[in-house]
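Lecture 7 notes: from sequence to structure.
We start with the chain below.
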Amino acid sequence: MTYTLLPETHSAGGPGGGGSRDPGTGRPRHADEFGSGEGTGGAGLVVGGNGDEERLARVGLSRVVEPGDLAALKAFDGLHPTEIWDRLHRNLPGLERWSPRLAAADPRRDLERAEAAGARFVIPGDEEWPEQIDVLDEAGQLSRRAGVPFGIWVRGRMSLRQALTSSIAVVGARACSSYGEHVAAELSCGLVDQGVTIVSGGAYGIDAAAHRAALAAGGVTIAVLACGVDVSYPKRNSALLSRIAADGVVVSELPPGCSPTKLRFLARNRLIAAITQGTVVIEAAVRSGALNTAGWAEQCGRPVLAVPGPITSRMSAGSHLLIRERNAILATNVADIIEAISPFGTNLTPTPRAPQTLTDTLHPDLQRTLDAVPVHNPAPTQHIATTAGLDVPTTQSCLETLTALALVTATPTGWRLHPPPN
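Predicted structure tokens for the same chain:
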């Protein structure tokens, strides 16, 4: 999907002001106030019904404002993106924090760079916008990050909204063990078989194992990055990210060319948690980014599941912490995960039970008699009755029943267990 942007217009408020203003208030008009573009100084419409003005403003803000910036949430509370963009360009008091990046921000250039990389910019109101991400508007804050992104940069041919219809986040340690890698692959393959999209962060370890397994199983996987969608990070995962872009979706709230930082990873985690129906943690140390993602899932009201590991492994200490202290759901198989993300009371996981054997159904007297029959050396009825604690007639009757069930064998010298089949 590409967007044809009409020539940019400037208001009397200064260059980059964003186009048409309301004649009564002098404030920028919202995109939904525009009609077909006639009489708006050239502000036309683009895919999804959002005007060029709003899209350009959101693109610019995605470069100027750090993802999840709490200061921005406070300063711009209640303002439409076009109003924010206009105020930044007018350099109003209290907005100096964002001035250094503003001069270099060029929304049109960012859109062109994204298009060259096969990417697009999706904003609220677009058909492709995943509405579940709006939960971040009320999810509070965590690790100094919060809020709904101004837009999402999407690379890949699939519709992001459709790909997330049924989805689960699979996250965990970068330096995972072979156990963790195996579990991530097994669970991801099983979830793909159930039509679930695998979402992760494109990193080493558990992330990469989950992505690769989903692709190998012919499923859909989404990588949420802490850098631009045209940036391969980590480098060794370049081929993997390229394949995800070809067969799945790569997304980020950062514009093209941006590099990852620690805070951007923390901000990225909130997107992973918000766009999915639940988060599965496979191997995580006590201090782990995967636990941050789990925390965001809790903030968003999504189920958190944790896979248990060896008690001797520090890489599973964080997973065990989630189960013990944060009420995470113990996940040991695909059915556990499907139940957690399904509507309440549906797709319930059956209680594990051992297969029932013939001896499980025996009457107590038959069971007591069978337990008293020797394995090799035949014993007479009287001896078996004494061992079983039953009278001789009852024991005799039980032995005959057990013989008919091929559980004991009668010999000239007494009774013994029927030999097992070879």
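Points to note: Residues 1-50 have pLDDT under 50 and may be disordered. The radius of gyration is 32 Å.
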